[in-house]
Amino acid sequence: MPVLSEEAGLHETLALLTSQLRPDSNHREEIGVLQDVFDEKSLNYLMKIHEKLFQYERHSPVPVLQSATALAEDVMEELQGTPLCSEEKELLQLLSTPHLKAILLVHDTVAQKNFDPVLPPLPDNYDDSFDEESVKIVRLVKNKEPLGATIRRDEHSGAVIVARIMCGGAADRSGLVHVGDELREVNGVAVLHKRPDEISQILAQSQGSITLKIIPAVKEEDHLQESKVHMRALFDFDPTEDRAIPCQEAGLPFRRGHVLEVVSQDDATWWQAKRIGDTNLRAGLIPSKEFQERRLAYRRTLGTLQNPRPTQTTLSGLRRSFRLSRKERQSNQNEPKTEHTDAPEFLTYEEVMRYQHQPGAQHRVVVLTGSLGARISELKRKVVMENPQQYGVAIPHTTRPRKSHERDGVEYHFVSKQSFEADGRSNNFLEQGEYKENLYGTSLQSIRSVMAKNKTCLVELQPDAVKQLRTPEFKPYVIFVKPQLHEKRRKPAVSPASVEITAALDEDQEMFNAAVFEQQYGHLIDTVLVREDLQSSCSQLKVILEMLRKDTFWVPVHWIKS
Prior knowledge:
Layout: H1 10-19, H2 28-38, H3 41-58, H4 68-80, H5 86-96, H6 98-112, E1 136-141, E2 149-153, E3 160-165, H7 170-174, E4 182-186, E5 189-190, H8 196-205, E6 209-215, E7 229-233, E8 259-264, E9 270-275, E10 284-287, H9 289-302, H10 312-315, E11 349-356, E12 366-370, H11 376-386, E13 391-393, E14 397-398, E15 413-414, H12 417-425, E16 429-435, E17 438-443, H13 444-452, E18 456-460, H14 463-469, E19 477-483, H15 507-521, E20 527-531, H16 534-550, E21 552-556, H17 557-561
Parallel strand pairs: 12-18, 12-19, 13-18, 14-15, 19-20
Antiparallel strand pairs: 1-6, 2-3, 3-4, 4-5, 4-6, 7-8, 7-11, 8-9, 9-10, 11-21, 14-17, 16-17
Main location: other
Subcellular location: Cell junction, Adherens junction; Membrane
Organism: Microcaecilia unicolor
């Protein structure tokens, strides 16, 4: 067998091995397959690439020069001063492209091994009023992001003190600045007699490196202890409109429904948080739950806080399963325990965590709520009829006589007035009311019956009843169904769940009612479904129902940890 030289590469070795293969009667088929593999062009190309890379690495290549960018600029300058032929014009155009300039800049950075930011030299002199050991000189690379720290002035001494360090900001990442440190200079400018807003302006306008002269706190606090919790916001917050925030630039704006990761609650007034899904690593300031509740309480005493509960006039336009004679619920030990038995006095935050439906677990109850014009009963009935094995509806109770075509337990549970009133006193109904001297109600047991069959229960409820379902047992997913703007109006279909209410509202009133609903009960809504034609709305609803079986959702933490 021929002997290979030490310089022979993998490609040559493979070629020699192929030439030495001799088929025999016992391994003819296997050797044939091996030869076919070795003869593949793609394999040969890969071997050649491997050899080239190996040779390149073995010779330890070094850059020819370390100033390719400067050379390119010199060439461009020479070309711009003389008449150019077509090749020279093409070269000038090529050297002028931003992509090539970026490549040359990266080349020079690697060649010069200039990977660290250039910091100015340490100052030669210190303030004579301090011992050298008591002063700390800190240099931070800021770029375009905020420094990530807020300051305050001590009321007694007048010193400028670091009030908080924003998690993930430049100051936090450095580990050199701590809450309680006294700030004396910024880039050589004394700040002792400057206002905090003036100092913030200096910091905001500084780019690149910032040099801080700091007197450390008597006992430096440890790095911020992260106590991460997730909160769903139940109100809108715009830091540019909040006069109480210590630093507007450090504020984190959010909308109702956003999920926030609260990374620090060290400050009882202003928490630090990030919005879930944001790429920004720096946390921002948000009002704490206690502080926001105090502000709302103060606004209520001044009469400037909007009533969180709608009036009876606005409620009359919203979808209701039963008429206005709904009876007041009485406290009873059989009533399901819920964190929100009544509307929270002030809507601030709700602690949440991720939840995904597990095989074998009961399905979440799907609550459909909205106005009359959304025709929820029609939509609900169509979804169940198309897949009765997977979905079911809560059958209402009634005291009215059964009609000839009706079946007990199908359209309604037909019960006596005495039995109905007994269930009402035991708080077995989510909703109950009277219509044309007959009583109607949706019971908790009717929902449990659907869930026991391993089906997703679809139920149509008022907002107040939704709050009673917010328990670990039901884990309701609330869909607000509202009519499409400019949809042709028609009388709502007669259905058992709507108790044959057929009053139609004009479009303007319908849209007004929908807006009132979202404003007053938006914190209870998980998603909004715009009611178009029946088929498209049914398709939208089925997509949502399927997502509930597969996707992960944020739910109140007490639903999981109870």
